[in-house]
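Figure 6 in text form: structure in, sequence out.
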């Protein structure tokens, strides 16, 4: 079963959510919540079909029963319109797939823009939207526990709606006080946040002085054999988030995979900077560290960073536990 980023059918008139917010602001009678509205909605299934709910439940092709667990309102594409997120469960008997949906206001209608499998027989305890991110508090099983064992590990997961659909994003904080470093132990790729210093790609260079907010990258790594690493890329391009995966090999070879960006419109940003940076990251072949400087090398250009704050490491084993939530590709 696979996730899908293809836009779905109209679910419900967006005016219902707009009226809900307006009524709340005016102190009128209690307006329907997102959950109440979406209990009568039409959603895409992960197989590419659709299911229409009535009273919160419905049946799709193959006699698969679907039920809505929870929903939340919030802006997912930064256009100030009240979008929504919903979690449904698809009961196939032996499997009970838990699916996250992102719903956008398009043309006055609320459209199922992307769906993503987030687990089998896991518990969903809370759903919220904040600053364009969907937060899902879940309870999952421990590594290698069978699905017959009740979930017992509480976990918070974050997702963003990108040009590739819903994708998970790993969040980590930067330490307020950097740890002392010896001359022989400078910043490593995965130990620091990296701030963009210069960007030259072919016959084009970015005017970084025009950026109000610095471009930053974080390499959230799981160390593997020797100097080889795999991990997740989390970045901020000054307006949109950049997410993806990376892999290093043979000391300095570096490749990015599955890069995606959020869908925020950025009218105040200099033209092309984010798109050029996004395309350049996809062409990176190698990296080089020298002191507190990082260079990402690509054919005909380079992207140069300086070390910023020290990243706070993940708790040991956190990645293994999160993996039990069984992501489907977006």
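Output sequence:
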């Amino acid at each position: 079963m696979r996730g899908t980023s293809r836009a779905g059918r109209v679910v419900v008139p967006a005016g219902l959510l707009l009226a809900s917010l307006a009524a709340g602001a005016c102190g009128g009678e209690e307006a329907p919540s997102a959950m109440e509205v979406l209990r009568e909605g039409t959603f895409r299934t992960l197989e590419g079909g659709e299911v229409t709910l009535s009273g919160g439940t419905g049946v799709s092709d193959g006699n698969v029963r679907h039920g809505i667990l929870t929903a939340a309102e919030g802006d997912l594409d930064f256009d100030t319109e009240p979008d929504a997120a919903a979690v449904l469960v698809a009961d196939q008997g032996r499997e009970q797939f838990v699916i996250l949906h992102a719903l956008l206001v398009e043309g006055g209608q609320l459209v199922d823009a992307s769906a993503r499998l987030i687990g089998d027989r896991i518990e969903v305890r809370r759903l919220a939207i904040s600053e364009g991110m969907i937060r899902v508090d879940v309870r999952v099983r421990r590594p290698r526990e069978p699905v017959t064992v009740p979930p017992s590990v509480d976990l918070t997961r974050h997702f963003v709606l990108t040009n590739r659909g819903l994708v998970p994003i790993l969040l980590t904080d930067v330490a307020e006080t950097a740890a002392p470093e010896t001359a022989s132990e400078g910043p490593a790729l995965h130990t620091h946040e990296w701030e963009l210093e210069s960007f030259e790609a072919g016959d084009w260079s970015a005017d970084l002085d025009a950026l109000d907010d610095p471009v930053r990258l974080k390499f959230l790594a799981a160390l593997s054999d020797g100097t080889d690493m795999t991990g997740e890329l989390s970045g901020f391009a000054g307006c949109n988030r950049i997410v993806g995966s990376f892999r290093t090999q043979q000391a300095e070879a570096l490749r990015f995979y599955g890069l995606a960006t959020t869908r925020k419109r950025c009218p105040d940003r200099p033209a092309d900077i984010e798109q050029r940076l996004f395309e350049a990251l996809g062409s990176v072949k190698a990296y080089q560290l020298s002191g507190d400087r990082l260079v990402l090398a690509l054919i005909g250009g380079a992207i140069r960073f300086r070390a910023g704050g020290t990243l706070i490491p993940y708790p040991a084993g956190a990645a293994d536990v999160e993996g039990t939530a069984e992501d489907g590709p977006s």
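Caption detail: Confidence is low (pLDDT under 50) at residues 1-10, 21-25, 316-330.
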